[in-house]
Amino acid sequence: MKFENLGFDKVKADLKRLDDVMENYGLIRAEQWDYERVSYDRKFELKEGVFYLRILGYTVEGDVGANRAVLQLLTPLLGKHYYPHGVEYGEGEDFPSSLVSQCEKILTELKAEIDKFVN
Q1: Model confidence at 94: pLDDT above 60
Q2: What pLDDT score was predicted for residue 89?
Q3: 103, 81 in Cβ contact below 8 A?
Q4: Backbone Cα Rg of the chain
Q5: Residue 49 to residues 2, 83, 91, 93: CA-CA distances in angstroms?
Q6: HEC secondary structure over 42-66
Q7: 21: exposed, middle or buried (Cβ count in 10 Å: 0-12, 13-18, 19+)
C-alpha cells in the first residue's frame, strides 16, 4: 500500500537529520542501506500478522556509507511480511484500518517535522 499525496516524494534532505527524525517516529535505518539507497522501517506485530511501514530513499549527493549524503525520499509503503518470502505491498493485501490510520498519523507528523529543516 502506498501513502501518496503526503509529499515525501518531493523531499531532499540530509542523511543525519533524517536518521534522527525518523528514529523519533520509530523508523529505523539499521542495516537497511547501501552506498546509494536507504530504507527506514517500523515494524508492527499484530494478531493479523507482521507489517512494516517503510520509507525508501536514494542519494542525490554524497555517500551513505560516509554518513554524508543528501537523500531523495520516495512514497512511503505499508507491507505485510510473509515468512520466508518477504514483504508484500500489493493492492490485494488486507491491511487493518486501525494500522492504516496509525501509519497516516505517523507520516503526517513526520512530514511536518521534516519540513522544518528542508528547503
Answers
A1: yes
A2: 86
A3: no
A4: 14
A5: 18, 10, 17, 12
A6: EEEEECCEEEEEEEEEEEEEEECCC
A7: middle
Of 86, 36, 76, the C-alpha closest to 56 is 76
pTM, entire model? 0.92
Query: Measured between alpha carbons, how far is 51 from 47 in angstroms, rounded to an integer?
Result: 10
Q: Which tens digit of pLDDT belongs to each residue from 42-93?
A: 999 999 999 999 999 999 999 998 889 999 999 999 999 988 888 888 878 8
Look up cell 491491511; give the residue.
Answer: 95
CB atoms closer than 10 angstroms to residue 94: 9
The one-letter amino acid code at 4 reads E
C-alpha cell at 52: 512494516
AA letter at 94: D
3-state percent breakdown (helix, strand, coil) of the chain, nearest 5? 25, 40, 35
Q: Which residue has the cell 528547503?
A: 119
